[in-house]
Amino acid sequence: MQEVYLNGDFLPADQAKVSVFDRGFLLGDGVYEVIPVYGGRSFQLLGHLERLQASLDGVRMNNPMTNVQWQTMIEQLVERNGGGEQSLYLQVTRGVAPRDHVFPQGVESTAFAMSSPLIPVEYKYKKQGIAAITLPDIRWQNCNIKAITLLPNSLLKQQALEAGAQEALLIRDGYLTEGAASNAYAVIDGTIYTAPKDEKVLPGITRELVITLAAKAKIPLVEQAVSLNELKNADEIWLSSSTKEVLPITTLDGAEVGNGLPGPIWQQIDAHYQQYKKDVDAWQ
Ligand code: PDD
């Protein structure tokens, strides 16, 4: 039986209960993290915990635990769920209070964590790439906060799926921001472009690693957003996320990207990424 963590206790998933007055349930008032686990160890944990703190600060919510407490709890949760490969989900909400837009006073936040199977990226997607469509970025002005309020992202991703694609690439004011559940990259004339870290994109942990790996591979990378037109003419397009790693997008809005196959720069970055995953001592 899957075990979850809720407010200080580990318990079977079907026994974990949250009040209907929880602000996460009523108002979507919470933040979250998704962390992959390889060989029983959580990947880039420090980066995820730092981003969790930044998200909590962004919504003026207290962190219910120190980083050491999070780390200890996560190690136990991973072990209780059998080690190996897992996908961890952490969520903090503002807690249980009578419904009101205004923040409640003196209320403890709700801390929840669960483990799910980490579904490996299908080989065919790495071999052939995936399809994406462009859609207007209908999200709010604080996309740097990893908020649980994912209705726009969900609508966008569903629209992509119904169009036969796996991801929606989002366009704001004529420029690519990111994917509905991923960061996005365009390769133009040998340079990798990804939108800068501001309130229009989530500061992806995988994105940070891609930047490090590109420097290591001596491939130029610029933190600059590309226009829709530049995107449509890019030699390569990729996405990245903790669960999807770095994936090539070979069809955009029904048209081939480059020659329609995963490109050579993606192949280099992916090789470095796979190598890094094996180098457990290098993880933060
Ligand atoms: N999402 N941008 C958005 C909007 C995302 O939802 C995600 C990840 C990313 C990539 O961030 P990272 O590399 O830190 O995973 C970028 C997770 C996986 C999710 O919501 O399930």
Which descriptors would you attach to this protein?
284 residues, D-amino Acid Aminotransferase, Chain A, domain 1, D-amino Acid Aminotransferase, Chain A, domain 2, 2 domains, 9-stranded mixed beta sheet, 6-stranded antiparallel beta sheet, globular, binds N-(5'-phosphopyridoxyl)-D-alanine, Aminotrans_IV, catalytic activity
Describe the secondary-structure layout.
Elements: E1 3-6, E2 9-12, H1 23-27, E3 30-38, E4 41-42, H2 45-58, H3 67-80, E5 86-93, E6 110-117, H4 123-128, E7 130-136, H5 151-162, E8 167-172, E9 175-179, E10 183-188, E11 191-194, H6 205-216, E12 221-223, H7 228-232, E13 236-241, E14 245-252, E15 255-256, H8 264-278
Parallel strand pairs: 7-8, 7-14, 11-12
Antiparallel strand pairs: 1-2, 1-6, 3-4, 3-5, 5-6, 8-9, 10-11, 10-13, 13-14, 14-15
The protein binds N-(5'-phosphopyridoxyl)-D-alanine (PDD).
